[in-house]
Amino acid sequence: MSLSFGILVFPQVQQLDLTGPYEVFASVPDSAVHLIWKDGEPVRSATGIPFVPTATFETCPPLDVLCIPGGAGVNPLLEDEAVLDFVRARAREVRYLTSVCTGALVLGAAGLLKGRRATTHWYAHDFLARFGAVPVQDRVVRDGTLITAGGVTSGIDFGLAVVAELLGREEAETVQLTLEYAPAPPFGAGTPAEAPPAVLERARKRLCGSRAAREAIIGRIT
Fold it and tell me: Where is each DJ-1/PfpI domain found (predicted)?
């Protein structure tokens, strides 16, 4: 069964939001994964890695799955009608509409989270309700054909969950094994509930610049 996955790529995307699910989707036999943007010019991730789009909004083929990753570059997308119109149009066609991390906010800005259960990065979770979503504190959340994932590293978990929905658990487990995905983090500081208070405060300070800009934008559009 041939499957077509589309992942939005944009300036200042969080690369692991994109490359985590990309690796999972590309590991499915007979799959095609498209990196989609307005044009074919290379864009740089938030950490400087360049990505070359493989399809534009006009040339993108039919998709089974559309995934919106997050990152600092999400902020301008929240008011970018070309992006939002593309996402709205494809949301009516795909089998699964999905996001990783703060990519969920793009779905919210497009009006696609109203009344739907969803999750996002812990430091943006409070924005979900502003878009009419039902916030859920889980790593991967499914509401019908909508699948959203939490923070940056949840993209692999999310990708495997999507593959399981499309092709069954055995295929998802096969992909997991081929990637040898057996996480064993060296520290127990991966969520605000687990992190020591001093670490949580350091993380908040590190993320506050992007959040302040996001707060202003969401204030304008909601």
Answer: 7-164
Domain boundaries of the chain, sorted by first residue = 3-184
Phi-psi region of 115 (alpha: psi -120 to 50; beta: other; left: phi over 0): left
Q: Which of 79, 127, 85 is nearest to 102 (CA)?
A: 127
208 has catalytic annotation? no
Task: Tell me the two tokens of residue 96.
Answer: 């699964």
Q: pTM, whole model, 2 decimals?
A: 0.97
CA distance 79 to 19: 25
**Is 3-184 assigned to CATH 3.10.20.740?**
no
pLDDT tens, residue by residue, 84-139: 999 999 999 999 999 999 999 999 999 999 999 999 999 999 999 999 999 999 99
Spot the catalytic one: 60, 67, 101, 208: 101
Give every CB contact of residue 174 below 8 A, 6+ residues apart in sequence.
none
